[in-house]
Amino acid sequence: MKSTADSQHLRNSGRNLEVPFRLFLKSDDFSAELICESIARIIPGKRLVCLGKWNKKPVAVKIFLNSKSARRHCEREIKGINAVANAGIKTPAILLQGNLQQDNTPVVVFQRVMPAFNTHEVFDMAETDEKRSKLLKRIAVVIAEQHEAGLKQKDLHLGNFLLSDNDIYTIDGDTVDTGQTGTPLPKAMSLNNLGLFLAQLNPEFDHLFFAVFQAYAEKRSWSLDSSLFNQLLKKVKFQRKKENKKYLHKIFRECTSFVCYKSWNSYMVCDRNFYHGEMKKLIADPDSVIDSSRLLKYGNSATVALAEVNVKLLVIKRYNIKNFIHALKRCLRDTRAWSSWRNAHSLELLGISTPKPIAFLERRWGPFRSTSYYISEYIDGTDLYRLITSDRSKKINIEALSIKFGEMLKLFADANMSHGDFKATNFILAGNKLYIIDIEGMRKHSCRWSLRRSLKRDCKRFMKNWKDIPKVARAFQNQIRKIKL
After folding, report:
1. Quick check: 450 and 480 in contact, CB under 8 A?
2. Which of 52, 88, 345, 460 has the highest local Cβ count within 10 Å?
3. What is the structure's pLDDT at 393?
4. Which positions ≥6 away from 134 have C-beta within 8 Å?
């Protein structure tokens, strides 16, 4: 039997809300019963989106839970969706608008578009640039239609669109700015908003931007002006810097993507998708898991183990405290696990491949930090030193490998970042991808001379690996020269 939920239950359940459940709605004109069968999105205490049925029809239900701002957000949602629909842009129709029967919590019921796929997921699953470009161009046309109607989404990203057959639907009316409805947005404002959308994409897809801009400009009847495209790229750079800063703050707190626990004795953040089953046991007692796993490295400063957790191979790196003096030096600084976690996410944002960060944990005594643990995915590959000095070296395309290294080095330079330890063993080749590991020593530089000095030191360390292999050294040195450090 399905239980009936009220707003207090929905708020108190947080992310542990059990489905299915029933909701009873009322307004001046109707009363209705909804069955919520699955959760599409939940922001505890603020908003809940669930999928279910009303009168046996499939619907999407948006419930506004924040007692202080619920009414305001609900009104903005309705106003935004109506403005989009009135502009002739596809968006799920509003079927009902009412309140929970018990306490007037506002609820909006939408037509459920079926079949429908979030364009973020479609983009991630696309196997070729052709498919990615085609999707982005279609979304760009919808964005152009919004701008032509005087509308803009203030939080514009791939998750704000649904793909159904050949149609793109705009969702999330709460973020739609209707202040200039009926008047096409000026070019500067339009480029800034389009730049916000493109800034959410990984830099490895920047080469698709011109085709996306072409589709947008054609819809707006703009001439293909190279200066306009250059303005767009500047907007992307500005928005990306702003968004990345927001994201790197978000990775240290509880949110949709991460679980975070703080106490007097510990501090932990874990990717929410991995926080179940054996992972919870690993977080509770990492030392036991390390002791029972295969050791990859055992040293005074760090211990590295390979463990199978939830049928997935993970690398656990414990940063040890060597002695009392070492403890005093480290206790008020960011732990190396903290730095690894931040740096791994920074690299992901830059389009530099590194093993996926899963979690980090710090032992604490109030504000004082001690032993820390960093957990990442295991990359099944071979480090560059073993690869190039092995019997397989004759089969390796050194030129292609050096180009991959050069591309990575350029991304570091463009982002004003240095690694700190370019040993060949810190580069892993898996398939066609080159990964970088041991990232706790990475630095962001505020001035060019400091960046150049550190990157030159990195490159000097890297070239030391090939001092006895002239052919390899020449290939890598040619790539380093192109960066013009």
Report:
1. no
2. 52
3. 66
4. none
Domains belonging to the chain, first-starting first, are 3-111 (3.30.200.20), 117-250 (1.10.510), 258-377 (3.30.200), 383-483 (1.10.510.10)
* Residues with pLDDT less than 70, the chain: 1-2, 327, 392-393
**Omega before 44 within 30 of 0, i.e. cis:** no
Answer whether 58's CB lies under 8 Å from 37's CB.
Answer: no
CB atoms within 10 A of CB 428: 21
Distance CA 255, CA 271 (A): 10
Sheet with 161-164: list strands edge to edge: 117-118, 161-164, 167-170
